[in-house]
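A reminder from the course coordinator: this example appears on the midterm review sheet, so study it carefully.

Given structure:
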């Protein structure tokens, strides 16, 4: 005989105990569902608010209407383990900082193309989120001070993505990575420094746990750098490199020095070397279905 989950048979959703809703129902609902549900009635609002407090994952991608309750949402959720934000032009430093300070147990943080965000907005990642293990900051202003502050509070990162960042100096990038011995995945695509070769030397020296490494679009990297990394990193599975096609008839100085020699060597070692490896890394971190993630970010 089946046991009832409530003292008496529930006639409506609101007759179910809150504990049942939180444990068995909330995990199947996205924040959008709960925000709509709370508009139905006073009872639904109270129930939705309690369920919002139990959310542990928040994905907000390409929402363009800042009046859709984000201020309430970002203040209400306080138990998040994963936060992923992308393409939010309305997102401000103050709103992001409030979200991060309210969620000190976050372990995965992803942000991309939120152009109003400055180092001030992400600073609580360094000062409040000391359980953070996966930090993906794509095309976001970071700055040397953030890296310095983060290193003072957290040396347990496993994934680091600083791709397309224009505000980090080679010196502080090198210091930061040298203080993160648990790193497994490192993405440094399109960092327009004079050179990140010193940082690659640091990775070669300290990266005993590194499995994936990407530095597409970084100038002054040579074949010998790639080959050295492939030889000395004991757990490496993929190094994402890209060969720049050069028109020999153009009288232009090129800073991209990698040749097919790098690709051939990686192939000979059975190591991955393509963008698809990076897509899989981020998908694994976010634990999102491939189709939904690619539809949002359209990597090629």
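Designed residues:
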């Amino acid at each position: 005989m089946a046991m009832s989950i409530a003292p008496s048979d529930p006639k409506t959703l609101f007759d179910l105990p809150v504990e049942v809703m939180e444990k068995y129902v909330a995990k199947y609902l996205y924040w959008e569902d709960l925000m709509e549900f709370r508009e139905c009635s006073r009872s639904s609002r109270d129930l939705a608010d309690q369920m919002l407090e139990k959310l542990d994952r928040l994905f907000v991608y390409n929402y363009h209407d800042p009046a859709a309750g984000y201020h309430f949402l970002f203040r209400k959720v306080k138990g998040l383990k994963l936060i992923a934000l992308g393409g939010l032009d309305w997102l401000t430093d103050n709103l992001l900082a409030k979200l991060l300070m309210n969620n000190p147990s976050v372990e995965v943080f992803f942000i991309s193309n939120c152009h109003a965000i400055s180092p001030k907005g992400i600073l609580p990642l360094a000062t409040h989120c000391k359980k953070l293990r996966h930090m993906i900051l794509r095309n976001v202003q970071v700055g040397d001070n953030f890296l310095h502050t983060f290193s003072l509070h957290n040396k347990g990162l496993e994934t680091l993505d600083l791709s397309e960042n224009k505000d980090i100096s080679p010196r502080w990038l090198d210091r930061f990575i040298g203080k993160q011995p648990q790193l497994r995945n490192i993405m440094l695509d399109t960092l327009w420094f004079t050179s990140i070769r010193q940082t690659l030397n640091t990775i070669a020296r300290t990266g005993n746990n590194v499995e994936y490494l990407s530095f597409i679009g970084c100038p002054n990297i040579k074949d010998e750098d790639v080959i050295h990394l492939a030889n000395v990193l004991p757990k490496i599975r993929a190094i994402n490199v890209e060969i720049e096609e050069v028109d020999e008839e153009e009288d232009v100085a090129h800073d991209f020095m990698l040749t097919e020699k790098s690709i051939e060597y990686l192939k000979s070692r059975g190591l991955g070397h393509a963008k698809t490896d990076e897509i899989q890394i981020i998908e694994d971190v976010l634990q999102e279905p491939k189709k939904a993630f690619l539809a949002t970010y359209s990597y090629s």
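The first helix runs from residue 18 to 25. The chain has two domains: 15-54, 56-243+255-298.
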